[in-house]
Amino acid sequence: MSYEFRELLKKVGSGPHTSENLTRQESETATRLMLLQEATPAQIGAFMISHRIKRPTGEELAGMLDAYDALGKKLPPIASKIPVMVMCNPYDGRSRTAPLSPLVAIVLAAAGVPVVLHGGDRMPTKEGVPLIELWDGLGVNWKTVSLEQIHAILQQTGLGFVYLPHHFPLAQGLVEYREQIGKRPPFSTLELMWNPYAGESHLICGYVHPPTEGMFRDAFALRGTTLFTTVKGLEGSCDLPRDRTAIIGMAAGEKFDRLTLVPRDYGFAAKELPLVSNEDLIDQMRAAMRGEPSELMQATIWNCGFYLWRAGACTSLESGFSQAQAILELGQAERKLQQVIHAIEACRSVLSN
Questions:
Q1: Molecular function (GO) terms listed (predicted)?
Q2: Are the C-beta atoms of 97 and 296 separated by less than 8 Å?
Q3: Is 352 within the bounds of a domain?
Q4: Which of 187, 208, 253, 288 could join 297 via S-S bond, C-beta 3.0 to 4.6 A?
């Protein structure tokens, strides 16, 4: 048993009247002891549920991110005129609406905006569709290459994916506790803020509940993270909604602006695409990359147009929408996908030899 961890557990687990928030250093210590499994399973489970009940603070999340930075390897910087866009989606996936992030990432990369995604397999308690399954369906196997090779692929193609079980096994070791406690612990918030890239980056953080955005901003202020975008997205993802106003926060330096995008103002209003089988969704994605008109293609253009503009790759939302549509209709997204597949195959060939 870790007596050091027990003292931290007592602070967060003392109930609504006497529990205390941890300092940034204390939170870093607690997270480190959990990642290294120096705290016992009983202590880790108790901490997770107690911390959920208490609710994490921005300072505590900053400390948790410090521990992730200390113990997890990061992708080294690449040469890029545009900061790498790191899109942070909930690890427990989607259960109601169709995920767009892989297709959006492909289009952005084809436009010269490098993108990094991260996540794992199906994860408690939601057990929704994770992004890695969609990448697999598209023929992109991120699971078999090392972090060093992901870095080379990112440099070559503008796309990368950090796969938790392979690239950050210490964090993967905490996943089983989610199922055992039956609730999402504060680590699920941490994952919406974690940046596995070491160079100049632009964090995109999806969320569901408005207080979460305040935690993001508090933690980022403490850590000196100044370029980020918050999105009240579909099921907490980075995907912009089409059946309601998109609520977006945009930080750059010391400035934070609020943007509300009304889809009908730009001709994109529609019902959200329901979740279908992975096979059907992959077929729809491939059709969109062939430029075949569909609601999925429209949803992709809506998202990509915003992100191209936000990344500084175009001067207006309207030009972003036009650029995204052209990338799909001209087959540039399909060619980018094939480039990524070939880059991964080349890495696997080196490994087999």
A1: anthranilate phosphoribosyltransferase activity
A2: no
A3: no
A4: 288
